[in-house]
Amino acid sequence: MGLISGLLTLPLAPVHGVVWVAERIQEQAEDELYDESAIRAGLLELDAARQTGELDEQEIAEAEDALIERLMAIRGVAGEESYGAVE
Fold this sequence. Notes:
The chain is mainly α and about 90 residues long. The protein is built from 4 helices and no strands. About 85% of the residues lie in helices and about 0% in strands. The longest helix is centred in the last third of the chain and has 30 residues.
């Protein structure tokens, strides 16, 4: 980047910084969303909540369904990726 273009784009530096931070946050959120160990931990927490009576059965069933759907989506995506690599 030349001196003139550097000076002209200097006012946009904060925007570039915000975009960079937003991209890192998105990557972290996706990593957590697709982390099987986090889903398993969530299922264990739901089981503990069931045993202590913190949540009713309907709330637990809905949360379990959501976690299992995420787990199936992860495994489906992983299966498609590995299948695509074989071809």
